[in-house]
Design brief:
alpha+beta, five-stranded mixed beta sheet
């Protein structure tokens, strides 16, 4: 009985063991299948991403727009740079006339035809240019400071202090020497440039004088004429009654033989070229106290060359 019961239990146990083994095999098979399925599912999306033509075509267009966009940016930058260069403020001294510049000679020299500020030279710029007709340039437009608004400078005129000149002046050369000596002894500027207001058949003021744009003034600063043209228009602004020392001489006779226009009154009445005191020789005189034509042509008839007289002396250059 016991033996039969033992056999029955052993058989049951064996059956149960086989049942467990079968369950384990099914579980293992199922796990493997699930693993393969999972692996297959995860792998399949990866392969198309590498080899699928659709994916490749999508990637290539993406690269091309990127390159085109970069090229566009470069071109835009280049255009912007060009525009900036074009609109740069003018730079004086670069050799190119730009903006409001009147000139640009590419240097920083004020002594040529273009100033540092890229302006053309003008009267009053403070730079003296005789080649442009300037007699002076004091950097302003004041007419009363020795250099006027036309860059014409003042020139001094005086009647000689010495009263006893006669017709034998040793010619125009001697009369010139007399004026320059008087200016030198009086310590006047530009003494070596003085000339006499005197005429013969080879010399006269309108020919020899500078036709200046500036004023003629006495030693003490009184204006006699505003310019050469004003000097020869027939009337003086003031009488020439001041000598080289600035002293008042008054109304005295002056050898001239010269018209109000600066030309000879006569080619025959010049004391034989200002070389004789022969009373038979004649010449014309003016009188220093007058401002009309009589300042240079006073007497209707010529005076003897042997009488005493003064000289008018005019500063030149």
């Amino acid at each position: 009985m016991l033996l039969a019961l033992s056999l029955v239990l052993s058989a049951c146990a064996l059956e149960r063991t086989w049942a467990d083994i079968e369950s384990l095999e099914q579980a293992t098979t199922t796990g493997t299948t699930e693993t393969e399925t999972t692996s297959s599912t995860e792998t399949e999306p990866t392969e198309p991403s590498t080899t699928d033509p659709a994916t490749t075509e999508t990637t290539e267009p993406t690269s091309e727009p990127t390159t085109a966009s970069t090229t566009t940016d470069v071109e835009t930058d280049t255009d912007t740079t060009a525009t900036t260069t074009t609109t740069t403020e003018p730079m004086c001294g670069n050799g190119q006339v730009e903006g409001d510049e009147e000139c640009d000679d590419g240097n920083q020299n004020n002594d040529d035809a273009c100033l540092n500020g890229c302006l053309k030279p003008y009267c009053g710029d403070g730079f003296f240019r005789p080649e442009d007709g300037e007699e002076c340039d004091d950097g302003n437009q004041n007419d009363d400071d020795g250099c006027n608004a036309q860059c014409g400078r003042d020139r001094v005129v005086f009647v000689t202090n010495k009263p006893d000149y006669k017709g034998d002046l040793s010619g125009i050369v001697g009369a010139t020497s007399a004026c320059r000596s008087a200016a030198l002894f009086a310590d006047l500027d530009h003494y070596e440039g003085y000339l006499p207001w005197l005429s013969d058949d080879a010399y006269w003021p309108a020919m020899a004088f500078v036709h200046g744009k500036g004023r003629y003034v006495t030693v003490d600063g009184v204006v006699v004429a505003d310019s050469w043209l004003d000097l020869v228009d027939g009337t003086l602004d003031a009488a020439i009654v001041i000598d080289e020392y600035g002293d008042l001489i008054g109304d005295v006779p002056v050898f001239t033989n010269t018209t109000i226009f600066g030309t000879p009154i006569s080619l025959d009445t010049d004391c034989e070229g200002w070389t004789t005191i022969d009373f038979a020789s004649k010449t014309y005189q003016g009188t220093s106290g007058e401002t009309d034509e009589r300042w240079t042509d006073y007497l209707p008839n010529p005076a003897p060359c042997g009488v005493n007289g003064h000289l008018y002396c005019f500063e030149q250059d």
